[in-house]
Task: inverse folding
């Protein structure tokens, strides 16, 4: 496993997509959802062992993502 900062930085395509979500672009949020929802749900389900709770987490993540991105500042 590579823990270097480069390993966790998004590609330029991903960075542009996240910047669009940060600005409130609903289409960009939909694309991030399309790309990541399955993984977010799978992790939530593994942790919670509940379909309903995993669905709640999935919704909470994507409803809160634009605001979280606006308040996030990268360090280091």
Result:
């Amino acid at each position: 496993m590579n823990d270097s900062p480069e390993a966790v930085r998004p590609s330029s395509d991903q960075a542009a997509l996240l910047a669009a979500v940060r600005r409130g672009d609903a289409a960009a949020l939909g694309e991030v959802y399309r790309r990541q929802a399955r993984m977010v749900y799978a992790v939530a389900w593994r942790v919670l062992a509940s379909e309903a709770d995993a669905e709640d987490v999935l919704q909470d993540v994507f409803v809160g993502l634009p605001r979280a991105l606006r308040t996030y500042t990268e360090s280091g």
